[in-house]
Write a structure and sequence with these properties.
By secondary structure, the chain is mostly beta strands. The protein is built from 2 helices and 25 strands. A hairpin with a 5-residue loop joins β15 and β16. The relative contact order is 0.13.
Length: 362
């Protein structure tokens, strides 16, 4: 039935449509317009070189939007769509024009539960289906429960892939190198382990792990200098912005700036030798989503981070990064993903409004 009513509930907003409420900022209002409305729990988006926008919906749909038309892309694998699981991030690599490959993260059914997985596939010439789809990575040994999948994926300057994996609600697992829970992993585009990963050859360690001790990192991005950053959910407070370094331990659940939802203290405090400190943290928690570093304009080099809890986009600036502004309007309800488009504009997904927006800066 869902497929039969697809055209009715998905509204593509033509150019020239009346603008949504602009977003005030310290440098003048951001002029925003809805591009796609009627989305069902959207999670991520990315751009093809021809202007097509790929959008994932957590419930299991990959949409291709182009020239006022939207179509479902077929060929997805079986998905685990319970709780926070489902179809999650989408990545269009830099060489799409020559290889037509895309990458998706999703929740894969596993023995005893489900885990974060990475799918590589070719997009057909007409954009209607995935071809030669292959799961090139899945977390091991697997976890039960329906939360904390992480699942952001980024292409490094050298072409390797970085993927975030939540600890799946199993807190001690984030300190166990024998498990992928609570880590940022690094793999090749075929899913192989790069030889210079930090734990290659270490007995009992998963060789894909690049960093560990994370709770539920749902944001990942490179700044203009090629430095990798991750944004992760704390518990009650302690949401973190972390500079990701090779082999580093980010402390969860031994150290944290938050507390358990019961109010109880987490671990041993806020610091411990051998464990990294966040560059910035939110307390109370703002439930951060993705992070993007802007290029050009008055905000060049600044980072934007979506907030799922308080319905705004945080602008972070300075060295070290600090939140300097909250960009907020009716359009910013549960911002799930934020990016800078090929046109230089800021694009963001409002899960609360079921809408993809485009925002231009003064």
């Amino acid at each position: 039935m869902k497929h039969a009513i697809f055209a009715a509930w998905l509204a593509l907003v033509p150019a020239g449509t009346a603008l949504a409420q602009d977003i005030p900022s310290s440098t003048g209002p951001l002029s925003i317009s809805p591009v796609v409305q009627g989305l069902d729990t959207p999670w991520s988006f990315d751009f093809l070189p021809d202007g097509t926008i790929l959008i994932t919906e957590r419930g299991g749909d990959l949409l291709a939007v182009r020239d006022g038309r939207a179509q479902r892309v077929s060929g997805l694998p079986d998905l685990y769509t319970r709780g926070q699981g489902g179809l999650l991030d989408v990545l269009v690599p830099r060489d799409f024009d020559t290889r037509r490959e895309i990458f998706l993260t999703y929740s894969k059914r596993q023995q005893g539960g489900a885990g974060t997985a990475v799918l590589k596939a070719r997009l057909s010439q007409d954009g209607s289906r995935l071809e030669s789809a292959e799961t090139i990575f899945e977390m091991a040994p697997g976890s039960s429960g329906g939360r904390h999948f992480g699942s952001r994926i980024e292409e490094a300057p050298d072409g390797h892939l970085f993927v975030t994996i939540g600890e799946r609600g199993d807190r001690p697992a984030a300190q166990d190198l024998a498990r992928h829970n609570g880590s940022v992993i690094r793999i090749t585009r075929d899913g192989a382990v790069p030889r210079d990963n930090p734990f290659v050859g270490q007995s009992g360690a998963q060789p894909e792990i690049w960093s560990y001790g994370h709770r539920n990192p749902q944001g990942l991005g490179f700044d203009g200098r090629g430095q990798l950053w991750a944004v992760e959910h704390g518990a009650q407070g302690g949401d973190e912005v972390n500079r990701i370094e090779k082999g580093a331990n980010y402390g969860w659940p031994v150290i944290s700036y938050g507390r358990h939802y019961s109010g109880a203290r987490i671990g041993e405090g806020t610091s411990k030798p051998g464990m990294e400190q966040p560059i910035f943290y939110w307390d109370p928690s703002n439930a951060p989503s993705d992070i993007v570093f802007l290029r050009g304009g008055r905000w060049d080099g600044d980072a934007l981070v979506g907030s799922l809890k308080f319905d705004y986009i945080a602008r972070l600036s300075g060295d070290p990064l600090r939140e300097v502004e909250q960009l907020k309007s009716e359009a910013t309800q549960r911002v799930r993903d934020v990016d800078q488009g090929p046109d230089g504009a800021i694009w963001f997904l409002s899960e609360g409004n079921g809408t993809l927006y485009r925002a231009t800066r003064p």
